[in-house]
Amino acid sequence: MLIILLVAAMFGQGQSWSDYGYYFITAFPENIAFYYPFIPSNYLKITALYNDTSVDVYLSHTLMFTNTLQSGDTTIVTLNVEQYQFGQSYRSVIINSSDYIVVLSVSHRGDSVQTNVVQPLQNLGTIYTIPSLNYSEMISTFNEMGENISKKNSLFRLVIINSEDVNNHVIIQRQQFQYTEIILNPNGLVQLPINGSEIAIVADYRVAVLLTHPCVETASCRCNMVVNQLRPDLQWSNLFLVPSVVHMSKTWLHVTSAMNIQLSGANLEPTNFAPYPSNLLSIPSVQSNSQYIFASDAVSLRIISPGLFIELIPLYMFHACYLVQISSTQGEVLVIAETAYKDNVHIDSSLLSSTDWSPIAQTQYSSVSVILDGEHVIWHSSSRIGVYMFERMRSGILYGGPAIALKMQPDPVGCLLHSTGFEIIQTPMTWVQSYQNCMLTKGDLFSPTSAEDQMQISNFLNNQEIKEDLWIGLRCSLFSLDWYWQKGNMRIYNLSYTQWATGEPGDHVKGMCASTSPNPSDSIINWKSVRCCTNLKSVCYRKAKYFSL
């Protein structure tokens, strides 16, 4: 059974899903909660992955924040605004950056707190299936007393945000072939109440979709706002490892699917679901042990508990590196790792040392909970892991969800943002433009300063069957007419090793910049001088970059 499950997990429905990007768009849904008279405290936590990253934040098309961050820096941008009205508005929040960042949204009013990892543009889609949630049934399940359910906020809401700077035609599909059409303004949004008849969203351009409720009741006279950014259907999968969260009092599983599916798991009897199911599946065993869930086709799964929605991480979306950000002193991180390699999980620069790992039945995985506060990087040196982060409000109610996923590729040294390697820049540019372009991608025009370097570039270009000239990081001084290597912002005039082609370098009128010169009769790539304003492709070299706080 285990082998079948692991093979099935390979058929993830979408591309890789990492939480970093250059462009994000979101909104702050309404948070009524128990302390309604309190002013909301809504903010973004923005973390830069690279140095000298400029960040701009816009609210309703107005610039609210601008700053430059260094790698590992986190800044808080407070935006005390909520989307409380139904219909269309311009209360979207846009985050732009010059390099990779991650964004965590925090909604806070009184004792009601929710966090949401904001997804970058590349993770958004045009087709979403809407979870069908029966509010009355759900609250009755939580409280076991249906007659005390408030009628004031009996419906969930959808916030649909146009990610594009053009008009976006959006269709809300309903059962019995009914539908609603909306034209979203550029970067505008719409908030709609939903009653369970809505089944799908289809848009011409990519949209972000938030499923939210301003005041899900959790106990008598107390409630909590919930928010869940939906994944587009192309990101669904069929195998999940459900985290066990310590002291979660009641837990149910909700499945979203557009077809008949069967759900099974280590502690579940096989259960059939019709398309667009609304019923909740009780999984009391997950309060003490994590477990796997297998679906016969691609689905989206959520854990639902009083005041909490957690969209589960499909197994194929496990990453090697995560960022966790805990604001309170009641933080808990749950890690799922392959049992054979569980001792290679790191928290920052130290190994996660624990004897409390629990095997997940009928799988090759185990899970462990760790008490943490503050910001940490959790990574694995050789395989992918799943990480969730949780906190508790003063009332004891849990909030949180999947941690911020950074990189899928494991590395024995740390959280690898990009590996060492060559990259051919296919756009022909001048030498100066090529040099600047490589710098922007956190590299340099390749500078082979030794025979070993020259053999590296020669092997790479020969394997790529490159037969044309490419810029390298060698040029001539306008003042001294000496050749030098331009590496970053440093000039290195010591040319103890050269590989000029026959008759090169020519006189300075011929050229004061250097390119590769493929030699059909020799595997070693030679150099030649070229006019610096010539448009050539180039070869960049990037050193490995690791993320730390």
Number of helices: 4
User: What's the overall average pLDDT, rounded?
Assistant: 88
- What proportion of the residues is helical, as a percent range? under 10%
Q: Mind describing the biggest β-sheet?
A: 8 strands, antiparallel
Which structural category fits the helices and strands?
mainly beta
Which properties best describe this structure?
549 residues; Mannose-Binding Protein A, Chain A; 4 helices; 40 strands; 49% strand
Walk me through this protein's architecture.
With 549 residues, the protein is mainly beta. It has a domain at 421-547: Mannose-Binding Protein A, Chain A, CATH 3.10.100.10. Helices cover 7% and strands 49% of the residues. The strands form 6 sheets. Strands 6, 9, 10, 11, 12, 13, 14 and 15 form an 8-stranded antiparallel beta sheet that branches. Strand 14 and strand 15 form a beta hairpin. The radius of gyration is 27 Å and the shape is elongated. The two termini are 41 Å apart. 45% of the residues are buried.
Write the layout of secondary structure elements.
Blueprint: H1 2-9, E1 21-26, E2 43-48, E3 53-59, E4 62-69, E5 74-78, E6 87-89, E7 93-109, E8 112-118, E9 125-129, H2 135-143, E10 156-162, E11 168-174, E12 179-184, E13 189-194, E14 198-219, E15 222-229, E16 237-242, E17 252-256, E18 261-265, E19 268-273, E20 281-282, E21 291-305, E22 308-311, E23 321-338, E24 345-347, E25 350-351, E26 358-359, E27 365-380, E28 386-392, E29 398-402, E30 404-407, E31 415-418, E32 421-429, H3 431-440, E33 444-445, H4 451-463, E34 470-476, E35 483-487, E36 490-492, E37 513-517, E38 526-530, E39 536-542, E40 545-547
Parallel strand pairs: 34-39
Antiparallel strand pairs: 1-7, 2-5, 2-7, 3-4, 3-7, 6-13, 7-8, 9-14, 10-13, 10-14, 11-12, 11-14, 14-15, 16-21, 17-20, 17-21, 18-19, 18-21, 21-22, 23-27, 23-28, 23-30, 24-25, 24-27, 26-27, 28-29, 31-40, 32-39, 33-39, 34-35, 34-37, 35-36, 37-38
